[in-house]
Amino acid sequence: MSKIIGAVEIGTSCAKALVGEVTEGKSLNIVGKSVRKNEGMRKGEIVDFRKVASSVHAALEEAEKMSGTTVDSVYLAQTGAHIKGSFLRGSANVASPDGRVSVDDLQTAANEAKRKQPASGRSYVHHVRMPIQLDGRSVEDPVGMIGKKVELIYWSIEGDESAIRMNLDLAHNYGLEVADLILSSIASSTMVAGPDLRRAGVLVIDLGAGVTDLALYRNGNVAYTGVIPVGGDHLTGDLSMGLRVLEPYAEELKLEYGKAQSDPSDADQQLWIIGNKTIGDRKVPRKTMTDIIHVRVVELFEIISKELGDLLDTSELGAGVLLTGGASRLPGIEQLASKVLGVPVTKANFPSGLGNELAQPENSTVLGLLHYGLEDHGLPGEQHKAVSSGFIKKLGGLIGI
Amino acid sequence: MNTNQETFFETNDNSNLNNNSFGIRAKVIGVGGAGISLVDGLRFDNFDFVDNLIIDVDIKAVADSLASQKLTFGRRHTRGMGTGGDVNLGKRLAEEEKDKIRKELEGVDLVFLLAGLGGGVGGGAAPVVARLAREHGALVFAFTPLPFSWEKTRHAQAEECLSELRKHANAVIPLPNDSLLQMGGEDSTALECFAEAGRNVSRGIAAICNIVFKKGMIDVDFSYLRKVFSGRGGRTLFGYGKGSGKEGLREALRDLLVCPMLHMPDVSKAADILLIFIQGGTSLSMSGLQSVSKEIRDSFKAGEDVVFGAHVDENLGEEVKITILGVTSLDPLVPTADVAPVAQQVLELGKNAKQSHRSKLEITNTSPEKTSSMATRKKRGRNIDNKEQNTFFFMEAENQRGIFDDLPSRNMYEGEDLDVPSYLRRGVKIVI
């Protein structure tokens, strides 16, 4: 028996759709994929709904056509500057007289943890569960064990309700059910940081076009997630203003000649702004261009460092920092990041077995959606509801909407 | 630029262009500490055919100034000392003694208001002075240096004062220190940056005064200037360029288009009202002027309201200088009691569709962060219907947001707008 699942990431520069086929034994084949330029979004937020809708729908249609099947439900990535994360806790005394933990006890604790409602206008995106605590010990599955009290901790991510709703509507309007809304940073770190890295401690920085997503893992668990509303587009914007060129030319210059740190060879190198040397074209020093990018990148990592504060502890980050996302292609960015953060930084790799075309830094979120979706994040004893007709439907409570 | 400035004012002195012969009185008013230094700076450029007035609460600062007219206020509250950067105090004191200020504004037709908006008097009292000046029927151009964005609280305060000032002045030309630092050589210092502010003010004032007061190749009269700038100014563009040699005019145009003061993507460079002033040596040709002026109009998407002036200055030789001042038109200013009759007549004569259908402005107390909706911002102050227009104010920083300019909210982090290029906020010089 095989299942068809879909993943949609509505990114600031592109809308991406993947169709995956899960065969028995949980192996995943990607059978359809499509990327469409998205012009209706800025900094991870929708500014022109119809433009976004048309590119999302075009991407979905193409991915479905390629796979030769239809998708009923998708995993949807959520990001944006409005996203905030915090820990929620809930506990329950073991109810049965013999002191054995039952599934109901876990449910009670879970309900208590999730009882706290977000402020009005805000809504939960995602609850990430930490290991269950049984009388202060971390236990994978306490059901049947003897104890007094079970405690559940969730890293709960909330965001602006209307922004989340718009994101969901984009899938609903295409007649798709959203199986789960997944935080972009968690999706991409699922892809690029395997369980061993997460246990060692790792910070994944996904440098997107509009925003930068952060996810920090300690001892295998999420310790922090964050979104910084600065991304690759800011490099383009800075270049456009600094060099006084139109945005598309700035974008081309960035992709072609951009680098994070200037080197001595830049000093006497001149770049043509448009490249075809027509009227209006002029030359700019390459050093100037590199300087503009350099200042922005340094500032971005300084903000990341400020946001993380004490969490950015080398001894707790055994696996260091991994960079992914489209903007991580910028040459020299890992050395510069390492200098600013004071922690070893490398560009993230993908697990082997993915085609070359897919294993690109800008795809880590959309790939991660499928992988995260496949994993079981429910409570022990809870049914990971897989409906036989071929799509997975997760418990509504996990979505929180 | 300085040499030009001097030559202009020297010739001016020689021909003794007495304002009275035009019946127009212009006054440069410096408010607060930064305003005073700017006025004093102008004075050294032989700037004395226009009255200079300085206003401050700090008696010592006023006493040290070289300005011809001085006014102190608020002595009862501050005992002659400064306001300590308290904008509200500066504003309150100015309001309390507004009759004193009014007296200085009587009969003045053109006011150049110079004030650093980071200070208590500059930020607090300047909008009051602008309002009073307009109540007296004067046309008010304000030149306002803004603190560096790393001076976080002061910068934020200055932005608030700027939007307040924009409610009252006909055109406000912000001179952000961030952008000024981009001028000059690679290792320019903060001091040079302040000097640059002074030069910019001189350029701006000189361009306007030249066109109105001095006879040249192409001139306009004051009533026309008043008509064109009668509205409430939105965003301002201010830039200049120079060139020399055979292709001087073209070179100056190229220089103008990459001027650091016009640090913004082309889409934002739109001006409903545009003042162009070109100065050059005897080789300045009419056909050249025509094509350059057309190109400038096109690059700034100017409408019909263009004030164009061109002067020949033999001392310039082959050099050509272009100064532009553009404003996006908003609705009329806060209605004032008495608008000068001449302006009124012109307004009524020239059927100005832009103004005619607009109702009175209601001031809303919306804070800049919460204001504009996407729809209004997209249109960039053009042809916006009235109600929407009143709900937002333009801010200096928006001029610096580049490709993120059309977003509804600003991207604030620890008091800095992250959408503004880092190099501008960090004072990193960009050489192009």
Report on this model:
The complex is a heterodimer of chains A (401) and B (432). Chain A is α+β, with helices and mostly antiparallel strands and 401 residues long. Chain A is 31% helix and 30% strand. Chain A has 11 helices and 21 strands. A 5-stranded mixed beta sheet of chain A has the order 3-2-1-6-12, with helices on both faces. In chain A, strands 7, 8, 9, 10 and 11 form a 5-stranded antiparallel beta sheet that branches. In chain A, helix 4 (184-192) packs across helix 10 (364-374). The radius of gyration of chain A is 22 Å and the shape is globular. Residues 384-401 of chain A have low confidence and may be disordered. With 432 residues, chain B is α/β, with parallel strands linked by helices. Helices cover 41% and strands 19% of the residues of chain B. Chain B has a 6-stranded parallel beta sheet with strand order 3-2-1-4-5-6, sandwiched between helices. In chain B, helix 7 packs across helix 8. Chain B is globular, with a radius of gyration of 20 Å. Residues 1-21 and 331-398 of chain B have low confidence and may be disordered. At the A-B interface, helix 6 and helix 8 of A face helix 19 of B.
Structural topology:
The complex is a heterodimer of chains A (401) and B (432).
Chain A: E1 3-10, E2 14-23, E3 27-37, E4 41-42, E5 45-46, H1 49-67, E6 73-78, E7 84-93, H2 103-113, E8 122-129, E9 132-134, E10 137-139, E11 149-160, H3 161-172, E12 177-183, H4 184-192, H5 195-200, E13 202-207, E14 212-218, E15 221-228, H6 232-242, H7 247-257, E16 270-272, E17 283-285, H8 286-308, E18 321-324, H9 333-341, E19 345-347, H10 364-374, E20 386-387, E21 391-392, H11 396-399
Parallel strand pairs in A: 1-6, 6-12, 13-18, 18-19
Antiparallel strand pairs in A: 1-2, 2-3, 4-5, 7-11, 8-11, 9-10, 9-11, 13-14, 14-15, 16-17, 20-21
Helix pairs in contact in A: 4-10, 6-7, 6-8, 8-9
Chain B: H1 2-15, H2 19-22, E1 26-31, H3 32-44, E2 51-56, H4 59-64, E3 69-72, H5 75-78, H6 87-96, H7 98-105, E4 110-115, H8 120-135, E5 139-146, H9 152-166, E6 171-176, H10 177-180, H11 190-213, H12 222-228, E7 231-243, H13 248-257, E8 273-280, H14 286-299, E9 305-312, E10 320-332, H15 341-349, H16 353-356, H17 374-378, H18 386-390, E11 412-413, E12 416-417, H19 422-425
Parallel strand pairs in B: 1-2, 1-4, 2-3, 4-5, 5-6, 8-9
Antiparallel strand pairs in B: 7-10, 8-10, 11-12
